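fwd from M.: "can u put these together and see what the complex looks like"

so here's what she sent:
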Amino acid sequence: MPDTTTGVVVIGGGSTGAGVLRDLSMRGIDAVLVEKGDLASGTTGRSHGLLHSGGRYCVNDLAAAIECVEEGRILRRIARTTIEDTGGYFVSVSEEDEAWVPRFVEGCGKAGISCERISVEEARRREPALSKQVRTVFWIPEDGHLDPFYLVMGNVESARRRGAQVRTYTEVTGFNRDGNRVTGVLTRDTMTGEETTIGCKAVINATGAWAGFVAKLLDVEVKVVPVKGVMVVLSHRVAHATINRCHKPGDGDIIVPALSVAILGTTAVRVPHPEVLPIEWEEVRHMIEEGSLMADGVSTARAMRAYAGVRPLYDLGAEAEGREMSRNFAVIDHEQRDGIAGFASIVGGKVTTYRLMAERVTDLVARRLGVTMPCATAGVPLNDRDDELDQLRHRPAQVGVPKPHGDELALQPLVCECELVRPQDVAPWFEDPAVRTLEDIRRRTRTGMGPCQAAVCSYRLAGRLVTDRHQDGPAATRAMADLLETRWRGVRHVFWGSQLRQAQVTAGLHLELFNLDRQLMLEKSTAPAGHFPPPQGEGQGGGVEKAEVASQR
Amino acid sequence: MRADIAVVGSGLAALVATRTLQQAGRNPVLIWPGLTSLYFTYATVDVLGYSDLTATQPVEQPEAGVAQLIADHPDHPYAVAGLDALRSGTTLLIEWLRAAGFSWQGSLAHNLLLPTAIGTPKPSCLVPDSMAPGDLRRDEPIVFCGFHGYEDFVPELAASNLSRSWGRGEGSVRAIRVSLPGFDASRLFTSIDLARSFEDKAFRQEVASRIRREISVDGHRLGVPAVLGLTHDSDIHSSFATQVGHPVFEIPTLPPSVLGLRLFDRLRKHIQESGVEMIWAAPAHEAEVSDGRCRRIFLKSAGREQPIDARAYVLAIEDTVDGALRAGVHTVVDPFFRQSLAHHAVPTERTDESLFKPQPFASIGYPVTDRLQPSDDAGRPLAGNVFVAGGAIAGYDPVGTKSRGGLAIATGYRAAKEAMAA
């Protein structure tokens, strides 16, 4: 007998899984989402956050470009609070690039992408950061920044309000079957080891780059090619709008101003496993050099960290690899293809098209379950209201930036000064059972993502683990250390200039003033298992380097 | 500008060197690059907290510990500076603190063991009176007191950790919180705001009475975040303790460091009032060397370059914290002699995978002669009249052994003595 039963189990807590969960819940289908790490901790949370206008794909991958155009417009309606409508420039910086221009213009036309050629002078007036090498400039009003964390949380919270459940740090270890029909999943809590069975009528495999490992548990094959991308985070936005190189998509050709930072992306290297994501110095150096070709200030800005993510490219059997592969997605109906009823996979695609991917796979599963209610996700805002402030754009105003004269807006207390995160922004998450580490708090609030990389706020968060979550001191201290360590993994790759000073201040505070290194030694042998143990657990397909070890955004 | 001896730096080493010169009747000029870690993370003077990086047992007798360290590691900066420099420098600092109106405790004979803001015992050698009652070598039960709306000190966290590593039985460590009169938890305030408020007598009295209501039993001592006054620490601390009715001790916490501000602002002011010329916020960035001597250094100040001609120089720069050493992508270069102090093929080589292990970058600095002169690869001095003190000496990292303060004192004192003789 299963421990619980539901209609559909969704495996994977990235943007696709979260989108599927919302879609199911809006069609009135009971659903549970299981994710082996935290929400948005895999591919989604490691993306560069470019809301694609489609311009990057319009020459080589027209179908993907058209999807980006349509979905971008839908997201601007339903996910307003997760988008910074920056607009974007496509710039050419060499003769070779300029040869791409006619194809780009033609592609934009075919895909229906708004695209306006502007003079270099006009472009520089609007965007003084554009480099001297820039030769031609296109203004693409529909490029932007899509915050991948808020996007996933927005979808999940919308689904939760409709009764859906979420279980993080829960990996699928097997399936229950009745003949050729899937009747449930076996799960294991990666922190406590607790095993649970969830009975269901259908399972949707939305695990992206991990889809092959999940399918393998049912002895079916899903070929996903994991392609690594390395990104560099700069400590300020550098430019007002996104900047793309107008050429055949390649390494280091995107700059995305994202909230308080800018993200340089990215590389494309096929990797043996989605959790083996080493960051090579050559990649970091290349990001900065290529970024500098498009915008001034990239090489002199303070690089705060580097991180790596993995694209889940679906192998349609073509010869193409990496970037040449389509960014399209596919719904795999395993009943039809493999004779396994109650199991479907959704693979390929990208964050910008997550909603459409969710719609397609949910259409299939709903049909099989006899549910006729159509998809409603394109018409209802994620927050189910329409009257809220734009969270991303108005955050400083909510926090109350003090005016030089007068005190009509007093500064509110802050948990994280770098990212202007208030106590009331973090407090609710300490009550959420899906939140198990301080990294999870970071993903939901941006706490610790600024220049000090959690040196200051980690103490306040550890304090809240004791006061709000009733953890004991050693568990809270361990969690604080873990947050600092996960941040450090990204900091190390860009360790020059003022990064050294910052690291000395961090060490002075935590190791000298707090004596944290000795605290960790003292508690090493006696640390109790709690809700905040150190990251651990085998990955799906396990035995290789853990996802948590690779640096995160 | 001409000077007798120029001291460049913004930390304890620079201050000790300057005071040493002043006490010897010399005429030093102190060139202070600007705000440094002192304002963020400074609280006590740690001479030697642990004998090595893996020891969990604190050093009880720092002087004996340093003597042993010198015997075991003849290249260590403590060995180069010498135990006598540590002794004389410490005596000089203690007398100076007294002359400047501070009340500090401690000696090289014994470390105190004080609870940190996460509740970990930490060995320190010299500490302000306001911290000393927290000494964990004593057995009185401890009450950590936090303030509602102030998240920079969490008494519950400190109490939970300390009760495990030190606890003297049931109820020997606990946490309380009181609200502060006039502080609205929905508005931002910092330790500086609290420290200013604690200078007000009526405010202190009210806070003390609120605390008294929370502690019913006698014989406890009270640990509070270090916010008991911005300038007049000792008077405020003792009067507050009297009002509370229990011994009170301050615990340094998140930046800005009120203890660091108190200490260095007052020492700086004192040294200026006693006639030492000081140049503020002027990073030194170049040295002119000829015939084996440094002829002048150049300061960057207010958009122009200011040369300083001194007979000798003490470089007491705080390695990378005050930005003195420039870390490029591959090479770390010093600002004076443009020496490449370290080269790394990739930036990750500068760090350990763990933040809590010794970091290679922290050991970057000048190799020095046995007289603390910066030297080239062959061990020859780069300039006969330049001497290095504090964090800018290569080859050691004080973080793991908690020895930053003692090393600053010993090398600052010795460098000053050498500069006088040069």
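replying to her w this: The CA atoms of residues 53 and 400 of chain B lie 5 Å apart.
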